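## tool: complex_structure
## caller: assistant
## args:
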Amino acid sequence: MKNTFALCSYLLLLVTLLGLVFSNCKANQVDNLDELINSRSSENPPKTLSWTKEDAYIPKYYYTSSIDPSPSQEEQKLADKITALPGQPYYGSNFDQYAGYVTVDPNAGRDLFYYFVESPANFSQYNPLVLWLNGGPGCSSLGFGAFEELGPFRVNPDGQTLYRNQFSWNEVANVLFLESPAGVGFSYAQNDSQTFFHTSGDKAAAKDAYVFLVNWLDRFPEYKDREIYITGESYAGHYVPQLAYTIVVNNLFRQIANQSAINLQGIAIGNPWVDDFTGVKGLFDYLWTHALNSDQTHELIERYCDFKSQSVSSICINATRNAFAEKGPIDSYNIYAPLCHDTSLKSSQTGSVYNYDPCSNVYVQAYLNRPEVQQALHAKPTQWSHCSLFQWKDSPVTVLPLIKKLIDHNINVWIYSGDVDSRVSVTATRYALNVLKLPIVTPWYPWYSENEIGGYAVQYKGLAFATVRGAGHMVPSWQPERAFNLILAFLSGYPSPPSSPK
Amino acid sequence: MKNTFALCSYLLLLVTLLGLVFSNCKANQVDNLDELINSRSSENPPKTLSWTKEDAYIPKYYYTSSIDPSPSQEEQKLADKITALPGQPYYGSNFDQYAGYVTVDPNAGRDLFYYFVESPANFSQYNPLVLWLNGGPGCSSLGFGAFEELGPFRVNPDGQTLYRNQFSWNEVANVLFLESPAGVGFSYAQNDSQTFFHTSGDKAAAKDAYVFLVNWLDRFPEYKDREIYITGESYAGHYVPQLAYTIVVNNLFRQIANQSAINLQGIAIGNPWVDDFTGVKGLFDYLWTHALNSDQTHELIERYCDFKSQSVSSICINATRNAFAEKGPIDSYNIYAPLCHDTSLKSSQTGSVYNYDPCSNVYVQAYLNRPEVQQALHAKPTQWSHCSLFQWKDSPVTVLPLIKKLIDHNINVWIYSGDVDSRVSVTATRYALNVLKLPIVTPWYPWYSENEIGGYAVQYKGLAFATVRGAGHMVPSWQPERAFNLILAFLSGYPSPPSSPK
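## result:
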């Protein structure tokens, strides 16, 4: 018996389950991803757009918000400079921080919020610019990337003081965190608060991010010729290649117009959602092989689920429901991690980057909602949350062809994968890479972070793949040192991660 | 092209590799297992014996070492009592400890060493007797089980003081650690130090362990009617069912002779080696699905390795070698754990049961070789080590039929599996259980340890299977609380582990 549910109605139950389990916690990146994938089976599924040169081209008039800006970009940069973040530790802050808004559409009043962390003073001029994007779609790069993953500070359990991340990426790069698209975190659409719902989708997100970047470079002109790398995780597996391709295409037009190109060197995406079919198949295979599912349930899925088909049998739907029920309430983003059982703030406890706290979301949300923190960040008073719910309008079922195009344009592509994440699993990513059929330059080998194996790597022609051993969905949260050494190798221009101990 | 190597020559390289990697560390349980399995391809492979009633029967005259014993068993028990272990913490030692030798063959002078830890005084008379056996074949239950896993004390990094294990199994049982067979740890053969090499094998080990138990019960007569459970891990997947069956068979003869039976209730075996075929297949499948091996290598193994066959193609041999080479130097017993990089003893550091120290072997070896410790344990001065090398004379390729027999004799069988051990993997154990084709009573469900999922369980008819989430090969080392709650449910007579949080 066949039902007419589309591809991923398997995941319908998932959101409900997570709603129950993490009822005290905020939405996570993949919860929003599930919403999106589920919506493929709705009456108004997102369009699956190809990414042609024409799609990516952005007319110059579109991003001239800097024409007659008042105040000037120079003044605006000065205004964006952060004196100090509330609760910031006295030691270990020998670098400059900026935060504020960049207008991407003056008519709709769409302003995107950024938080920029430079390298320590003597190195900022030599280090590259790294843009970081979190996924969702609809989740905050400030809440996740900056304050729980790769930024210089994390939030203590009191929700009001910060501690240092010794493995902050700003040690080797000037890191720009962007809340994208409008409607996420502190980013907004002024004139019509609903605007972003009508314009939200992969293409609009890439367009706004591109316009943001051009205008941001007007405000920070010393970075205009700098090497730029775009990084991100989860649904940023869509965002990053799409923004990169937008840059590549517009660089061609800029060359024609005799303008300087954006110096894009490479992209690095972690536990990225890049392909629906391998993503869903890899999810269920991972659950079984990691002893979270029964043989019986997996056998039914193997036999009755054709994830490429648009029609799904009821046996398959039941089996996939069982798959989620059987694993029970674990942290799907790190299957061996503890859950957050106590969501209250705690006084007189100091966090450590070596021991990821499963309640971090709670502390970060409290911190970013403090008026003095929003003021220090130059953010408009906002009820800030990690993720917003979106009606996503366009989203191709795969970005693998786009990744191939980037390789053809000599953009260095790294894909890494924390190997204890069940949601966008290393299994799924391996399946996706096999679809690309890239020639192997250096076959599977262990790579090293200090004196331990950091994970495994394969160097394909134009693309490096690396696992990160013992890391969950948010790789820098659970394995900060390994993530740091990986990104250091990437930014240093190595073709793949180091194959011997330090 | 086919070579005439037997079943497990795949593993030949493994021992060499481990020798290199862990050159500073002592042999582990599975290294000895590899030796054994490799020896199946030698000119003198161990015989694969069936276990019939006749094999298991031990004539009474065989175990009458207690006839005319001098000193009496009562005096011997008194002599075996441990005043205090050197470096033992003052608090948390409200229980009695004994250690010493029990003769199993007076002619050969074969004496087996035991360490016995009673429950705290008010409970020892109510709690059952639990015998613990480590694997190898040839590894010490004192070094592993008692001082690194489930015993009341662990050794600090100074190699001379102890700290408490809050999750010691003696809280709920009187625990008897046996160094078996003769030649392991403090156990020896007096008259002919080589005796154990000529008699070592599964059948001899079971016979000696049985005679030990009968004689030990003469020394501790208050336990003669007590409920007894036999537990162990790794190659004890052979030892435990074989000893249990020996007891079952001899109980029948004792009934005929109107003697009281040994009150055996159940067995629990962790990450047990029970079946060569599924064990080797499960090892390689685990390596691939946990992103430790390349797709290419796994595909070759899938296509060219028939682990049931006695002849192996050279393609298969190369592929299995690649499988071990590709994963590189990680701790195969816990694929996410750090390695021991500094094998020196450290002063002024206190260990914690919550944070397993990868250098524990070093501390334990130092401790058990201290003359005052050997004296306190009533052990003969010995150059003690975790594992001894054996020429193993008999070992069936599977004990699954024996496990079936035990179920038929109403012995409660629990099999548990730490899910991050690659050597005797949860995958291998699931494959082995599928061979048994037992009816499922309660299908796959998450079981709870406190408020977290401790792992997953299936209740078969007569057998419970439980995974232990985030535990390596030595389950109580890496997940002491989960192991404790699991064994508590087992000893409390539950048919399978608890299905809801505490």
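## assistant note: Residues 119 and 380 of chain A are 26 Å apart (CA to CA). The first helix of chain A runs from residue 12 to 21. Handing back to user.
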